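Reviewers asked in the last cycle whether our approach scales beyond single polypeptides. To address this, we selected a multi-component target totalling 569 residues and predicted its structure end to end. The input consisted of the following lines:
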Amino acid sequence: MTVEPAVATTQRAAAADDRGPGTDLVLELRGVQTFYGQIQALRGIDLEVRAGEIVTLIGGNGAGKTTTLKTISGLIHPRKGQVLFQGRDVSRFPAHQLVRAGIGHAPEGRRIFSRLTVLENLQMGGYTRSPAERREDLERVMTLFPRLRERVRQNGGTLSGGEQQMLAIGRALMGRPRLLLLDEPSLGLAPILVQQIFNIIREINAQGTTILLVEQNALQALSIAARGYVLQTGRVILADTAERLAANEDVRRAYLGEI
Amino acid sequence: MDPQTVTVLTQQFFNALTLGAIYALIALGYTMVYGIIELINFAHGEIFMVGAFIAMFFLTSIGFSGSIPDPLTLAAVLALTFLVTMTVLGFIGVGIERFAYRPLRNAPRLAPLITAIGVSFILQNVVQIWRGPSPVNTPQLLTHNVRFDIGAASIGYLNIFIFLVAVVLMVALQLFVGRTRLGRAMRSTAQDREAAQLMGVNINSTIAITFFIGSALAGAAGIVYGLYFGSIQFTIGFVAGLKAFTAAVLGGIGNLAGAALGGFFIGFIEVAAAQIGYARWTPAFVFGVLILVLVFRPSGLLGQPIGERA
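The resulting structure, written as structure tokens, was:
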């Protein structure tokens, strides 16, 4: 696939600087390069997410989508480039500090604590919050996911796939993130559940949480996102509004399953 | 059963409880550390030994070298000894983790294992240089002569005291791990370190807290060992550690209740072996039972089958 880099990201980054700390830019990546040992996974990623947006990362396997999210949440640190969260360079921050700063990450594969109860999983999500805040958020999350309320005393490992995904999202919400990173929330779910999860993502966003969404299901993702980035072998090869990406011939051919 | 046998069995029952309590306290540290970083901390037996020496040193330094008849003074001195020894041991455990194990956290698993054996030699040698190679007498605050009678059997208050100390500490540990925010953080870290980080858990301090608690419990075991046996030596950590490790594996390594159960189990095996006339063979019995349990239940008495572990 050959796609011209559509946006001059460096120029936009410079413009963001001029706006200073009062800007509505929640997240900005500047030339981020991340390695696993000798293997380079990200080859200079530039992207930005503004307050209130849903932004999606699409791309094939090994494009660097998950690595990008892990670099943002501090599980891996970039070797070069910067991650700016609300204008502050957080590239060197350990993951647990970024949770306090306001980044929530529901990782690939859900990663719920299978031998903790649903309640304990949610309590862990609110680990950085005060007991009173935790109780309040627990109520909010269980209202959003009534299924979790029914299963509150069950071990996480006994939930179905869809319930586990709800728990993973609910758990991330318990930290009251400013920015929520979602990695493949629809993976392995029945179509009816996929629709339900996407509705919930939209609802969470409507309640004021900015979302960066990684999805295999590009069509669904683009249908709820404002903007999207197409990743290929560790680079952003295309950045545009979700509408235009969904209409783009090359994107349709490569990621939306059209021939 | 004739009354003579009943008397002997009652007495032996309390001996087994006491011995089991000591093993159980040590076994908890093995199982906690294994649960959180999957390391068999072979230095843990030595931490117990250091605990016995620190308690002995503390008691003699504050001027108590014999029995204390006044119950209030006795209680105060014991409380202070536990507080000081457990705190010191906790920090020793944290220090060992910080300097010996943390740098190797991402190394192949054999590296920290061998380091643990190295740490165990260091601890033994340090104590040997400090107090010499011969057995050292420990202050007998509560002598074996203070006893009460159950039927014809006479039971030392010391046995009851040691058992109660162990039970109180184990219940406190269970509540801490099961009910508190930090306890949840420990369990989460044990199950999925990366996911725990994404909840805002500082992995390093959680692992440090685990070492603190495990080492403090071994310190408590060291205190009661000194009180019970009256003499300690720099080598006591090796065999006691090995048996406590066996207890942890027997109960299902990583499982707190299992470690406690395994500790008492081994206490009873040892006393039973001695009672039927094979006192010299107790290690053979202990490890024989370990082999049998592992053949038929490889994950231990209370451990989850391997497949279920996240």
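Residues 3-308 of chain B form a domain with the ABC transporter involved in vitamin B12 uptake, BtuC fold (CATH 1.10.3470). We regard this as preliminary and will revisit it once experimental data from Aim 1 are available.
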